[in-house]
Amino acid sequence: QVQLVESGGGSVQAGGSLRLSCAASGRTFNPFAMDWHRLAPGKDRDLVARIMWITGNTNYTKSVEGRFTISRDRAKKTVYLRMDSLQPGDTAIYYCRAGSAVRDYWGQGTQVTVSS
Predict the structure, then answer these.
(1) Quick check: 10 and 91 in contact, CB under 8 A?
(2) How far apart are the first and last CA of the chain?
(3) What was the pLDDT predicted at 27?
(4) Which of 63, 69, 66, 72 shows the shortest CA–CA distance to 92?
(5) Residue 102 has what pLDDT?
(6) Strands 58-60 vs 3-7: parallel, antiparallel or unpaired
(7) Pick the residue with more confidence: 101 or 84?
(8) Which has more confidence, 101 or 58?
(9) Is the pLDDT of residue 30 over 90?
(10) Could you give the CA distance from residue 108 to residue 94 in angstroms, rounded to a whole number?
(11) CB of 21 within 8 A of CB of 80?
(12) Which residues of 65-100 are buried (b: 16+ CB within 10 A; e: fewer)?
């Protein structure tokens, strides 16, 4: 069984930075990709950034391009999301997801609040 645990959320002022981490546990962990998604009040959960586990190729939703950076440490089974120049519109619960051939796994979420 794979479990994902996020950490690193918090409250910052606009223009600030945070780094989220998502650590995977479980003997069998072989995703093809890991993502960060976010759920803002009154909105649908949206994909923010994705990284391919083997190649490290990344893609981002347009609203975060140039401000957020997704990375991974395969040895630690951890994916990160560095968030710079945070804006109030980035306020949301951030979830990580691991996609595999068998099923998707989701973390419990971590709150990010950006004040103006």
Answers:
(1) no
(2) 41
(3) 78
(4) 63
(5) 84
(6) unpaired
(7) 84
(8) 58
(9) no
(10) 9
(11) yes
(12) eeebbbebeeeebbbbbebeebeeebbbbbbbbbbb
Phi, psi angle pair for 31, to nearest 5°: -75, 160
Express as a percent the part of the chain with pLDDT over 90.
90
Residue 58 and residue 62: Cα distance in Å, rounded? 13
User: The tokens of 40 are what?
Assistant: 């803002």
Query: Which residue's structure tokens are 């971590």?
Result: 110
Which tokens is 20 given? 């989220």
Residue 105 has what pLDDT?
A: 94
Q: Is residue 41 packed enough to be buried (19+ CB in 10 Å), middle (13-18) or exposed (0-12)? A: exposed
User: How much is the pLDDT for 37?
Assistant: 98
Q: Give the pLDDT score at 67.
A: 98
